[in-house]
User: What shape does this take?
Amino acid sequence: MFRKKEKDDIQAQPYTKKTFGVQIIMTVAAIAFIAPIFIILNYSFKGKRELYLSSPLSLPESFNLENYVKAFDKLNLATTFTNTFIYTAISVLILAILCGTTAWAIARCTHKFFKFCYIYFIVGILIPYQALFLPIYMIGYKLHLTNTRYGIIFMYVATGVSFGVFLMNSFMSTVPLELEEAARIDGCSVIRTYISVVMPILKPAMATLIIMQAFQIWNDYLLASLYVSKKQLKTLTVAIQSLFSAQSSDYTTAMAAIVISVLPIAILFLSLQKYFIKGMTVGAVKG
Amino acid sequence: MKKTKKGTMEQRMFRQYLLLVLPGFIIFTIGLIIPMFMAVRYSFTSWDGMSAEKIFVGFQNYIDLFKDSNFRDAWLFTIKFTIGNTIIQNIVALLFAVALDSGIKGQKIYRTILFIPCLISAVIVGFVWLKMFSNVLPALNDLLGTNINFLLFGKKETVLSGLLIANNWQWIGYWMLIYLAGLQSVPAELYEAAKVDGAGAVKRFFNVTIPMLAPAITICVVGITTGSLKVYDLLVSSTKGGPGRSSTSMIYETYTTAINGRQYGYGSAMSVTLVIVLLLVALIQVKGLKKREVQA
Amino acid sequence: MKRKKVLCTVLAAMMIASMATGCGGNDDGKAGGTEKKSEGEKVTLTVLAGQSTTDAGIEDMIDEALAEKYPNIELEWECVDWGNDFQPKMQQYMQSGLPDIMIGKAQDVSTYAPQGVLGEIDSKYVDRGLDAASENVTIDGKTYGLVYNALYQGVYYNKTMFKENGWEVPKTQEDLQKIIDDCKAKGITPFASHMVDTWSIGNVTMQFAMNDVFNNDPTWGDKFRDGKVSFSDSKEMQTAYEYNKLIYDNTFPETFSTEQTDCDAKMVQGEAAMKVSGSWSIQNFLDIDENFEFGIFPFPNQTGDSKLIFEPNITVMTSKDTKHQEEVNQVLDLLTSDKDLAVDILDYTKTASMLKDVTPTFKNPSQEDIDKYAEEGNIVDVTLGNNQLVWGGFQEENAKDIASWLQGDLSFEDCLKASDGRVGASSAN
Assistant: This one.
């Protein structure tokens, strides 16, 4: 086996002409990328009148938190935040478990039905659920899923499962068959084999899946507005969107609301960055 | 005797595997596949989305689609947007990844900064760039005394570039991370071997890096293409499909037709067409890219 | 292994808990719905409110007033954006059963009442509103909507600027042209506009059509559907479209990148003299400068007899199949009889009253002009036009063509032809 070049192995070396040039280019790129974020922050501290009378690039006169207070209030933050968190957390956990078992069964069982299953799930990645707006609602209504917490979670699982199976399936080659066979010879049932042998190996894959889906679900707009529009069930993105719809005049509050909504997921990313990257590494290499 | 036993054993295994697949299968079928077939059924009716009666009109909706210039324009925009995204995002993300992997200082900081935009929901990204193009960047003109046209969302000719900028700003960091991960797992020995063979930096990139990145490229290309074909959220809060209809994507057109225009049957025909195209595109891509992977 | 088991248990517990809360929420709603209520028992009514952003917040005011007068009723609000989400939500509910109360715009009545899903509003409550309010929400003698407030639409103008330059309020197109010419000579932009919002193009086009088409021919839309008139043939309708060009030629060059708030700010700062708009701009104007002096006049038509346009806005509709007619009526009673609440809402939304004997107290420099037109009877309800040619799927789509035409991507003939081709979508039914 090759020795893997781990990212921590890359030491910052003394500059050569080339690396210095690269450093400068990347710095410019990074500034360009971070600029809009600064603008959001900048706007979020400005007063309404200040926004129009001063240059958009000027710093706020004072760091007043009025916009944030307003945004907290308008977004009904305690409720919307908890809702979004619950929907996201439970959906991704279910997805991780479900997609793991499904993908594994598809990879291991050679029966025709499973071959069909694979294609069946893959097709799902391509179906734009955005276009299936009304039938999705109607079927949800018939099953009493609309305006309930489990209904929206059900839908997130349903729309995420196909990508999950695709992703997990591409990881299956990392699971050594010998281990599974050994477990089976020891008399483990299929499900037992999965739990004791396969699942531990799939952990990084699950992490990848959880990360990728968590973003999508946290930021989802369409399904949330479709399934949970009652005030006490609303999500953060839906609440924010209403702040910048037509005829709205309160951009400064909207900007504060954006900061509030991005902050938790940004903190999550910054603190779990190591795991994020690790998860993605596996995805990119073994995909 | 032995054979039948093996048969039952296989059957038992089959049943257990089935047990593992079924929950996902059922949820997926109810949540997505059945609605899909409902849409197919509606696409043969002139249903307005409200009334109880759904009049069967056969293939009329599909015939009308071919005469509908808005539908054609929406396709054109979506295709341009997708091609632009696939090319720019892949190349820039890969270049960034290579740059970060070249041993520059503060790699983690760059990585974090480039990644942050994709933590933001597309609805918000659209809104932010609307403000950027119409207020913030023109103010930069005043400051620098330059006269660059930043009003990209205001003209038919430039709205596509504006949206590409917004979309790339959001996603480049994400794909870059995948490429970076791929790069960092390329065995150092391969590079050294190539060096010994006398291959220059460029040659090493094309002969070692790219083939080793093949799985990552597959993920990125398929991900970006199918994602771009489904673009909708980004438009809702930025151009709203305008000016005129110049940035109306397929999903956007479908949504306005089916919902605002109360032509649910016709809109369903649009989504069915879209699904078919998406399927074809992905199929071709996966086939083609997998082939290259094998060759590599 | 153990850790995994624990994890699984926790997961399962979380799932069950979440479902329980989900179910719980549902059951609460149903308990209120099916059980016969006894004295003091709470009844929960579901309300779907399609709001403009300026309306958001009135639900809390109504809740507060309701708690005082009818504490037995609780409203379960579902507030959505009228422009984007009201119609889709209504479509959903048509499949599954309407909420007890819906709040939309007057033009929604003609969309949904013919579907046979709306309940008739008791004349007791209708009579508490202005007569003009019920006209366009009444179908075959039955009133399905309770109109609560109204917006005014027309040309807002900078009073100070008009005074300084000696401009009179224009009555005819020639008058208007003179002002435009004078503006240009003095380096003032005549019109503020924000065409990045396609809805605003659609909105002003309807304003133009009201005074150049529907004033002479209130059934133009019906004739259009009968094939007797068309956009390609109708001189009047073409005039209405062409006014857009007049605005476009005399506005900010960056109008297709300017949003409403920016546009209103420029207007207040004296960068433009006039703006074709509606009451929704008032709040913006006063937010930026509370001393901004502005008035309103109707956009002059060809014949010089334009009327100021008003649009009934918040309109309360009820479900025909509600299980709580009595409580729904109590809510209607509260809305029509609580004058303090009405004034609060009107002040908050900066709109005009559609209830008898209720006048908002917020500062509105254009009120003087509105009163003048109202006294002379020179006001007209735009719901007429919106019923003849519906907004969603027709006006909205036409506006996109107009935008393309203004930008030179579509010929005027093709723009008209496109509107003609949309005839099937021009009526809600």
In short: Chain B has a mean pLDDT of 84. Chain B touches chain C at residues 49-51, 130, 133-135, 138, 151, 153-156, 236, 239-246, 256-257, 259-264 (CB under 8 Å).
